[in-house]
Write a structure and sequence with these properties.
- Belongs to the AfsR/DnrI/RedD regulatory family.
- Keywords: DNA-binding.
- This is BTAD domain-containing putative transcriptional regulator.
- It comes from Nonomuraea mangrovi.
- With 979 residues, the chain is mainly alpha-helical.
- Among the domains are: 143 residues, P-loop containing nucleotide triphosphate hydrolases (Rossmann fold, 3-Layer(aba) Sandwich); 86 residues; 111 residues, Arc Repressor Mutant, subunit A (Orthogonal Bundle); 76 residues, Tetratricopeptide repeat domain (Serine Threonine Protein Phosphatase 5, Tetratricopeptide repeat, Alpha Horseshoe); 103 residues, Tetratricopeptide repeat domain (Serine Threonine Protein Phosphatase 5, Tetratricopeptide repeat, Alpha Horseshoe), CATH 1.25.40.
- It has 49 helices and 13 strands.
- The protein has a five-stranded parallel sheet with strand order 7-8-9-6-10, with helices on both faces.
- Helix 15 runs parallel beside helix 17, helix 20 crosses helix 22 and helix 41 packs parallel to helix 43.
- It is globular.
């Protein structure tokens, strides 16, 4: 695993994929550990660096939590990478870009060969992606390290400039150093190299002006004069001293190859590996073609790969965009081959003869020919290239085209869009002067890069708008991207000055059938399979043609369009275009085909298949058939709000719509009719979710009878799982165990893993009530494995919180807190308030048992407020309220507030009687016994404890030892009062 601090904090896996480290404090922790370069950092130092004087309530536990989060973010090696030692925490980072940078500098300084030194310094500077520790550069704990690294970078820039000057690169340096000098105007070593480069380039007046500007700045800002070496250089420039001329070196005295490659004004970002790969292909193949969509950077990569001085005859670029006339003439003109001397051509000579004359002129030469933008002349280019390569064995050709030349011996290299990290780096580098990535701007920049598909040209056009709009303004306007990116491209060819022009160029090369096919594919926002393409009227031959022309991205078995190409095509379609009707019909049929497979052994496969089509399914609006076909898929995936919105729009008042309304907290309504047993079961399932036993009971009974009459085994298993939950609410644990066990067995026979996990969850809760925590933990872990494998993230949240409850009851508060925090984060990501609430209550339980009464009260008050709102909306008491009131009562009692504690426990007792739950009644009585202990009423308190114990025993659920903490504490206090 590699770590990056030379720019925004970054982590990459061994295969180069970026590793996301979420949450600012966790990233700050990582930055702090990286600052210390493998040295231990004491916990107190980390706390001071991360929180300063505003320490959290439990500093040690909070720091441990952040360390755990960092380890999880780093993956399976996290515990080996972040290690605790007696002296503090250590990050065992095998590779950090700052250390790689330092190593390259050491190698460069130990190298005598100027060219090798320049290359090593270039490699070192290429590691920089922005200011060191960019997002934490203003923090005290990174300031010294960032300053040191920045000084090393500037020193490397100065050393590189000096060696390049010695190699004779004064013309390019004169321009490139201008920007660096403007950023660091008082660095005399840098300024001296710049003045020499200007003078050697024949720009004496600019060199003199540069010295004058430095002298005035030094006087005004520091009250100093330039140093003696710089002053001597100034005098030498004035008298045009011959000693300032370039000194020949082995690298500069030799004849340099000729070339017409243009100098690049900006650095190449994110393509270092690609440059090496293309050069390797040129070593082994005489024809290499770079393919890819418009704007992906084929030309820029080709120029970088071609900038190689190993071709004795030079490197020659022939730009074919907008080419008119004979290709052979255009190539000859760029190569400087004169017609009358080299080719013997004459006016009216046939094109074939011209081509052969050019081939004869190149015979015996060793050179690289770069043919740029061949797609609109692909057949002519293929024919000419074949002839030239056959005639001139020393010739190599590097072509760029949106499709292959398809000639023998051709090696293809597909230029892919930039990955997210490189795209972000490019965008930041091209944005307005002074722009730096920070925690606020980073999400917007990442969104821009993703929506522009990592296309370098589009990113540069978007970056040009940052000065006027800011990154958020750019991101929010991408729905109108062609208008947004209609300026900012001056200095480029006309076909690259706007995003629309880029796609216009590609569109113009397509046939009418290809254009129609592309528009049909654009109607699928999530990409599509070949089957879906054919259903939309796109045959496989057309699909293959569009892939070969780089207009469609093939990622078998799926095909997709880049977002900008899709937007271009959609703008050409009317709302009632037949392509949308064909698309909608296909996805409705697919959803209906998938529905029965979601309940049985193939549910994993079909869940994943529908996952691939989520965006396409969302695009189909107004279809009642689709709303019903997708209901169970959306339930399993936790997309309850999505299901409810679709059903409310197409089938309001149906059993499914009413059930989902309850699941998302949107209120309670009457069902128009129950068409079958499954609709009764689903509404009953929703009632149980709210704890409404009275409404759920009759529906479950009717549903089970209907399922058994139809021999619907899946329905029977689902109804039995519901009856197990119902019996648990009613305190009939024996019945709950019987129903839950039968449900699990039936689901097991059917191979429905979701159903098995639901039954296991209910049985795990029963084991928890009985104090069998080993069995409860095993059942919840099995459910967690199933939920994770099926990607049922809402279920995963519940299972994590359930494991948190078991950890709490077995005394592992740290593990309990971590389980509940993970469950709460996942629930929040799924926008599931019920799962989030379940985790919040668990965190409140952990806080109270660890003595953090303030945190416990805050969490329980939030939970009580939410439950009260639901009770008002649904008109039924919620089971969770009794536990929350009891916990708040215990908090008040521990603080010695008998009045508040009594009020809370009496309110809980009333709620427990209303819902008819004996265990909740017993809990309220135990709380009131604690109030009696505070008031010195020993006899009343002991009586309440005995009544609570008898009530629990009457339903077969005596309080397990792990849950007797409050009861034992209160009994001890009461016995003390009695004595």
């Amino acid at each position: 695993m590699r770590f990056g601090v030379l720019g925004p904090l970054a982590v990459w896996a061994d295969d180069g994929r970026p590793v996301r480290v979420p949450e600012v404090k966790v990233r700050a922790l990582l930055a702090d550990l990286l600052v210390h370069e493998g040295r231990p950092v004491p916990a107190d130092r980390l706390l001071d660096d991360l929180w300063g004087e505003e320490l959290p309530g439990n500093p040690a536990n909070t720091l441990q939590t952040k360390v755990s989060q960092l380890r999880r973010a780093l993956g399976r090696d996290g515990r080996d990478l972040v290690v605790f030692q007696p002296a503090g925490y250590v990050l065992r980072a095998a590779e950090v870009d700052a250390l790689t940078f330092a190593g390259l500098l050491d190698r460069a300084r130990a190298t005598a060969d100027p060219r090798a030194k320049a290359d090593l310094l270039s490699d070192a500077l290429a590691l920089w992606r922005g200011p060191a520790f960019a997002e934490f550069r203003d923090e005290e704990f990174t300031r010294a390290a960032a300053t040191r690294l920045e000084e090393q970078r500037l020193t490397a820039v100065e050393e590189q400039a000096e060696v390049r000057l010695a190699l004779g690169e004064h013309s390019r340096l004169a321009d490139e150093l201008g920007e660096v000098v403007a950023e660091h105007p008082l660095r005399e070593r840098l300024r001296a190299t710049h003045l020499r480069a200007l003078y050697r380039s024949g720009r004496q007046s600019e060199a003199l002006a540069g010295y004058t500007e430095l002298r005035e700045r030094l006087a005004d800002e520091l009250g100093l004069d330039p140093g003696p070496e710089l002053a001597a250089l100034y005098q030498a420039i004035l008298r045009q001293d011959q000693g300032l001329a370039p000194v020949p070196t082995p690298a500069t005295s030799a004849a340099r190859p000729r070339t017409n490659l243009p100098a690049q004004l900006t650095g190449l970002i994110g393509r270092q590996e690609a440059v090496a790969r293309v050069r390797a292909l040129l070593d082994s193949s005489r024809l290499v073609t770079l393919t890819g969509p418009g704007g992906v950077g084929k030309t820029r990569l080709a120029l970088a790969a071609a900038a190689d001085p190993t071709y004795p005859g030079g490197v020659w670029l022939v730009e074919l965009a907008g080419a008119a006339g004979e290709l052979a003439e255009r190539v000859a003109a760029e190569l400087g081959i004169r017609d009358e001397t080299a080719s013997g051509s004459r006016p009216g000579m046939p094109p074939a003869a011209l081509a052969h004359r050019l081939a004869d002129a190149l015979r015996g030469q060793e050179l690289l020919l770069v043919l740029d933008n061949c797609e609109h002349l692909v057949e002519q280019v293929a024919e000419l290239t074949t002839l030239l390569l056959r005639t001139a064995p020393g010739l190599r050709v590097l072509a760029t085209s949106q499709e292959s030349l398809a000639v023998p011996g051709e090696s293809l290299y597909t230029v892919a869009p930039l990955g997210l990290a490189d795209a972000v780096e490019l965008f930041a580098a091209r944005a307005a002067p002074g722009f730096t990535m920070d925690a606020e701007s980073a999400p917007w920049v990442e969104a821009i890069c993703a929506r522009l598909d990592g296309l370098p040209l589009a990113l540069e056009l978007a970056a040009a708008r940052v000065r006027a709009l800011g990154v958020r303004g750019v991101a929010e306007r991408l729905d109108d991207r062609f208008r947004l990116l209609a300026a900012g491209g001056r200095g480029r060819p006309a076909r690259q000055q706007t995003l629309r022009a880029v796609i216009d160029w590609s569109w113009d090369q397509l046939t009418e059938p290809q254009r129609a096919a592309l528009c049909a594919l654009a109607a699928h926002p999530g990409g599509c399979t070949a089957e879906a393409a054919e259903a939309s009227g796109v045959d496989l031959d057309l699909l293959d043609q569009l892939v070969n022309r780089s207009m469609v991205v093939a990622d078998p078995p799926r095909y997709r369009l880049m977002e900008s190409i899709a937007a271009y095509c959609l703008a050409l379609l009317d709302e009632d275009d037949p392509v949308f009707a064909r698309r909608d019909a296909y996805y409705v049929e697919l959803a209906e085909r998938a529905r029965p497979h979601l309940q049985g052994p193939t549910q994993r496969e079909w869940l994943r298949r529908l996952d691939d089509e989520v965006l396409n399914l969302l695009a189909v609006t107004g279809s009642r058939r689709l709303a019903h076909a997708l209901a169970w898929y959306r339930y399993l995936r936790g997309r309850h709000g999505e299901a409810h919105r679709h059903l409310a729009a197409t089938d309001a008042g149906s059993a499914l719509e009413v059930g989902f309304a309850m699941l998302v907290g949107a209120g309670r309504a009457e069902v128009k009719e129950y068409p079958d047993a499954r609709s009764r079961w689903f509404v009953a399932h929703a009632y149980l979710h709210l704890g409404d036993v009275a409404a759920a009971g009759p529906l479950l009974g009717e549903a089970l009878a209907g399922f058994r009459a139809l021999d619907d085994r899946w329905g029977a298993a689902a109804a039995l799982a519901g009856l197990a939950k119902l019996a648990t609410f009613q305190g009939d644990f024996a019945a709950a165990e019987r129903s839950g066990t039968e449900s699990m067995a039936l689901f097991g026979e059917l191979g429905d893993r979701w159903g098995q996990s639901q039954a296991a969850d209910q049985l795990g809760y029963l084991a928890e009530i009985a104090g069998d925590y080993e069995r409860a933990g095993r059942l919840h872990r099995e459910g967690l494995r199933v939920a994770e494998d099926l990607r049922l993230w809402t279920d995963v949240s519940y299972r994590l919180s359930s494991l948190g409850r078991i950890a709490l009851l077995t005394g592992d508060l740290a593990a309990s807190r971590e389980f509940h925090e993970r469950g709460m984060r996942l629930a929040a990501e799924q926008s599931n308030r019920f799962a989030e609430e379940f985790a919040r209550v668990g965190l409140g339980l952990v806080a109270r048992r660890s003595g953090d009464l303030d945190t416990a009260e805050r969490l329980f008050r939030e939970s009580l407020e939410w439950n009260r709102r639901l009770e008002a909306d649904y008109g039924v008491p919620f089971y969770g309220v009794t536990l929350i009131l009891a916990e708040l009562g215990f908090v008040a009692e521990r603080r010695g507030d008998a009045v508040q504690a009594r009020a809370l426990h009496l309110e809980g007792l009333a709620a427990a009687h209303e819902i008819g739950d004996p265990r909740s009644v017993a809990l309220a009585q135990e709380g009131l016994a604690g109030v009696a202990a505070l008031e010195g009423a020993a006899e009343e308190g002991l009586r309440l404890l005995e009544e609570a114990s008898a009530l629990r025993a009457s339903v077969g659920a005596p309080l397990p030892p792990a849950e007797r903490g409050d009861v034992d504490r209160i009994r001890s206090a009461l016995e003390g009062v009695a004595r």
